[in-house]
């Protein structure tokens, strides 16, 4: 320890006086008394002590009386003032508020206040007797703490004060944020959600890289070791470079062996291959499919395990739908420039996987195929019609290009066969098609689904499954009938490589091939790289999210956060129920049923109980299936994915676990699950700029209240309303109410279909109002959040819950909407914006801000927007729902 840092001596050891000077000190009365040489009797000592105590008490009472009398005389000598003041307020009403100020005057105000209008109020002060300990009113207190100053500065920095809030509230509330957050070269989009997500990741990083001060329990020690090992193996770029592409190449080889297992020996002709594919359902195809699906690579079809919403929402069964493909949506498969790019990327992948022969290959014999892996022998045709045969095997580049073209054509056919996203997202009745299990095998005879399901260790096959779009399976059968095996294997290989390439070293050809596709589709700068630690923390959350969530919750979700966050949610639910009788389009019977559904919604806040984030053993047991080892990053990720697949299929035939979550605690998001009738809010989103237990209510209800209202109203959006109080699919509104509701939904869909983003090519890409309908209805829930804030205002204000922030020249009502809008702050490149318009059921952030506010009279009133402004259109052009 440095000399200057040595501990200060105890005051008991100080030799110097606290005040300078050498004047002698007069001994006190007690010192003189104790120093007396005369011996005092015990009675004398007692009497002397009593006298001393009485003397001290008398002095105290005299001082208190004199001070009180002085203050009273001062007040009585002060003339009673009458003051005329001019104010500007948001609230429009006549009211009386009695306040006790610090100077102990009671002030009674009576005024009619309208925002934007000068109002004159007369204050008459009258003196009343008030006890000194009376707590001053906190209603209009201005917080000047460091936290409040920082919060105020953050709000101000978001705002673009040159923008008209009635023209473009997104620009007004987030224009400053956009200016201060230019897009990094490696990202096509950055939002307030993303920034908070990065903050959450950094908290997890601190947990993983700093040893705990207190030794963890044995179970927590195991969990922490897995987290640290996975993160460390991801950050070990040297080992990743040494291993190169070997981990993924080994997987591709295994896929090839499984696929060819049921096709026959390599010396079979192309005609024989096609005959086997059509007439003898190959076990190899089924085995390859099961193996891919176990690794999370869903080819040909996808599976979801959820409740049978039409019969018993808690009975977990198998749902079958169409798969994801190499391009984000079917629209991309109709664009020549994107198809050319995608084909070139697949050609690079196939070329890289094709070994370079050291010497010219020998002439083929009758029992030996000249075609090196991964190229099965050529066929005269890969689809109906005539095509020339492939070039000789030595020309690997041409082979790779030709196979890539055929795989892209195959995926294009699959994309065209699938349903549109707006149908899959918005029609729960249309996507509920239960059929006997046997129908699945009958639809696709080339696949043995009994064998497929057996691979996932199901105890018994479900008696029936649910198809989301039956025509897809019929079209898929026809596509498979004319698709040669090598094209099918090429597609499987492409899907596997694109799914796992990210976990290779960035120096590999496979990684760089996929990166080229990502750069173009997202519009990011070629060669740019995301910070490795940020990406690796995302991998940790994805693979071991509940394990990372346990210490994250302990670190960030203490105090009253859960209690206050839950109160916001329940206040929003109450506001919804109070609003129902006033909805002109909903009759009493439907309103009663809607209130019952709102009461039945399960509210989950912060963290799950399955696995139990509060229990170290529960978390350790949940991840017991995931072996994590040093220097095997690729295998670590693979193990986590396989464990997730096992858990998913283990649900088949069981009852719903009502404590289970679909999101991890650190996630910056929330969701509504229709069959479970629950709304869920992870701890990750209960942080600024969405929520703080210390914020004034107008900020909390503006931000997190709008999130809460969004998830609540999903229970009554165009899809969610089809599920009743128990999560069962049925029409539980009256026909009259349903018809009136559909008219309002149509209005909202048409409104959002007029919004557009720049497609990056000089054109406009319009929002799909049908695809985004449910989310737009959810965003309209801001009206409920505003009413929830109003309802609690009178009880919150006197307790200081609506305190003001320094330097903000905005009313509480205005700050409510500013708080709402700043959660949607974002910046996007045109390519990413286009991709999201095509694939995302959410509207772009600008329209998630402006869209719902343009239908809200309370917003127009708060900012005094004249009729005809974009955010205050004429009433006949507004879409009112809640």
Automatic annotation (TrEMBL):
Residues 669-879 form the Peptidase M13 C-terminal domain. This is Metalloprotease. One of its GO terms (cellular component) is plasma membrane. Keywords: Hydrolase, Membrane, Metal-binding, Metalloprotease, Protease, Transmembrane, Transmembrane helix, Zinc. GO terms for biological process: protein processing. Residues 165-608 form the Peptidase M13 N-terminal domain. InterPro entries: MetalloPept_cat_dom_sf, Peptidase_M13, Peptidase_M13_C, Peptidase_M13_dom_2, Peptidase_M13_N. Residues 1-11 have a biased composition (Basic and acidic residues). Belongs to the peptidase M13 family. Residues 1-23, 832-851 are annotated as: Disordered. GO terms for molecular function: metal ion binding; metalloendopeptidase activity. It holds the Pfam family Peptidase_M13_N. The chain crosses the membrane at residues 46-68. Its cofactor is Zn(2+).
């Amino acid at each position: 320890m440095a000399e200057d840092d040595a501990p200060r001596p105890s005051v008991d050891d100080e030799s110097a006086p606290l005040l300078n000077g050498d004047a002698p000190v007069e001994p006190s009365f007690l010192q003189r008394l104790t120093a007396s040489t005369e011996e005092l009797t015990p009675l004398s000592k007692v009497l002397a002590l009593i006298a001393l105590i009485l003397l001290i008490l008398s002095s105290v009472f005299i001082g208190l009386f004199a001070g009180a009398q002085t203050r009273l005389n001062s007040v009585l000598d002060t003339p009673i003032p009458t003051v005329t003041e001019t104010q500007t307020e948001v609230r429009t009403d006549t009211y009386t508020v009695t306040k006790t100020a610090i100077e102990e005057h009671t002030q009674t105000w009576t005024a009619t206040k309208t925002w934007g209008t000068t109002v004159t109020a007369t204050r008459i002060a009258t003196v009343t007797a008030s006890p000194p300990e009376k707590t001053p009113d906190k209603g209009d207190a201005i917080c000047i703490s460091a936290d409040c100053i920082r919060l105020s500065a953050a709000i101000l920095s978001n705002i673009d004060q040159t923008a008209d809030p009635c023209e473009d509230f997104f620009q007004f509330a987030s224009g400053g944020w956009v200016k201060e957050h230019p897009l990094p070269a490696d990202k096509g989009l950055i939002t307030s959600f993303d920034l908070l997500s990065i903050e959450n990741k950094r908290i997890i990083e601190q947990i993983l890289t700093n040893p705990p001060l207190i030794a963890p329990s044995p179970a927590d020690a195991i969990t922490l070791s897995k987290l640290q090992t996975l993160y460390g193996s991801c950050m070990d770029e040297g080992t990743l470079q040494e291993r190169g592409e070997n981990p993924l190449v080994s997987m591709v080889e295994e896929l090839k062996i499984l696929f060819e297992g049921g096709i026959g020996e390599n010396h079979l002709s192309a005609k024989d291959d096609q005959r086997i594919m059509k007439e003898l359902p190959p076990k190899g195809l089924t085995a390859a499919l099961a193996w891919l699906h176990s690794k999370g690579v869903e080819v040909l079809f996808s599976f979801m395990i959820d409740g049978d919403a039409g019969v018993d929402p808690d009975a977990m069964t198998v749902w079958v739908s169409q798969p994801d493909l190499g391009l984000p949506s079917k629209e991309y498969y109709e664009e020549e420039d994107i198809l050319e790019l995608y084909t070139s990327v697949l050609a690079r992948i196939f070329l890289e996987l094709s070994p370079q022969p050291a010497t010219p290959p020998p002439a083929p014999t009758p029992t030996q195929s000249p075609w090196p892996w991964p190229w099965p022998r050529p066929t005269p045709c890969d689809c109906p019609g005539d095509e020339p045969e492939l070039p000789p095997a030595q020309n690997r580049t041409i082979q790779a290009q030709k196979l890539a073209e055929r795989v892209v054509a195959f995926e294009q056919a699959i994309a065209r066969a699938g349903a549109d996203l707006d149908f899959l997202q918005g029609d729960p009745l249309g996507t509920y098609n239960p059929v006997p299990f046997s129908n699945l095998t009958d639809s696709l005879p080339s696949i043995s689904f009994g064998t497929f399901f057996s691979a996932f260790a199901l105890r018994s096959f479900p008696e029936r499954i649910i198809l989301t779009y039956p025509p897809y399976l019929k079209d898929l059968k026809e596509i498979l009938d004319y698709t040669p095996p090598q094209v099918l294997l090429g597609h499987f290989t492409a899907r596997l490589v694109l799914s796992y390439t990210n976990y290779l070293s960035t120096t590999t050809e496979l990684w760089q091939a996929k990166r080229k596709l990502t750069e173009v589709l997202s519009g990011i700068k070629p060669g740019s790289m995301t910070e490795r630690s940020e990406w690796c923390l995302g991998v940790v959350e994805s693979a071991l999210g509940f394990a990372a969530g346990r210490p994250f919750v302990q670190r960030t979700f203490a105090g009253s956060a859960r209690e206050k966050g839950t109160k916001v949610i329940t206040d929003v639910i109450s506001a919804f129920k109070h609003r129902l009788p006033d909805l002109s389009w909903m009759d009493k019977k439907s309103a009663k049923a809607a209130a019952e559904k709102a009461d039945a919604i399960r509210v989950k806040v912060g963290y799950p109980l399955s696995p139990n984030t509060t229990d170290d053993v529960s978390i350790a047991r949940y991840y017991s299936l995931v072996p994590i080892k040093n220097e095997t990053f690729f295998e670590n990720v693979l193990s986590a994915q396989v464990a997730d697949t096992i858990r998913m299929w283990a649900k088949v035939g069981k009852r719903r676990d009502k404590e289970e979550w679909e999101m991890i605690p650190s996630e910056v998001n929330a969701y509504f699950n229709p069959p479970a009738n629950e709304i869920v809010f992870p701890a990750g989103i209960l942080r600024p700029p969405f929520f703080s237990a210390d914020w004034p209510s107008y900020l909390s209800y503006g931000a997190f209240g709008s999130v809460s209202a969004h998830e609540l109203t999903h229970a009554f959006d165009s899809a969610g309303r089809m599920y009743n109080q128990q999560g069962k699919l049925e029409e539980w509104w009256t026909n009259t109410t349903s018809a009136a509701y559909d008219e309002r939904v149509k209005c909202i869909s048409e409104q959002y279909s007029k919004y557009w983003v720049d497609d990056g090519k000089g054109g406009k890409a319009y929002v799909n109002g049908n695809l985004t309908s449910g989310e737009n209805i959810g965003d309209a829930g801001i009206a409920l959040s505003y009413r929830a804030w109003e309802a609690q205002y009178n009880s919150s204000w006197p307790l200081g819950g609506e305190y003001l922030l320094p330097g903000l020249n905005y009313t509480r009502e205005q700050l409510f909407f500013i708080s709402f809008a700043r959660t949607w702050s974002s910046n996007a490149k045109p390519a990413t914006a286009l991709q999201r318009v095509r694939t995302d059921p959410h509207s772009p952030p600008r329209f998630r801000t402006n869209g719902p506010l343009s239908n809200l009279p309370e917003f127009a009133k708060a900012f005094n927007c004249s009729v005809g402004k974009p955010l205050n259109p004429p009433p006949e052009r507004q879409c009112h729902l809640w």
